[in-house]
Design goal:
This protein is an alpha+beta fold. It has a 3-stranded antiparallel β-sheet with strand order 1-5-2, covered by helices on one side. Strands 3-4 form a two-stranded antiparallel ribbon. It has 3 helices and 5 strands; from the N terminus they run αβααββββ.
Length: 120
Amino acid sequence: MKRNFTWLIVALTVFSGGASASEYIFRDLMGNTLPSPGCAVESEAVAKATKPYNINNYSKRFCQTQGYGWYVSEVKDNGKAVCEDCKGADAGKKQCHVEDVVVTCKRLKPGTAGLIPGKS
């Protein structure tokens, strides 16, 4: 019984093909976020605009504009906050957004993970 089990393990090892690693296509994108809603004191407006949630959310949107299958690999640069003065009743307050956010997007390279029917 032990010999049969050993031969089975040897046979599986010999005949099993090595799994090929998936290849990816990478693309760096630069974009700007939208201004935060409402007006606030400059320090609060900058804090709202540079929240990690906002950066991650917009990074995901930047990659999704490339088409189906693109997703965020990493955020290379969080950019810089830029503020503008509010007008009307909120004079003296600011509304901020983040410029030049650099994101690396990736997607699976077609044909590297069995995506083409009939080919291995």
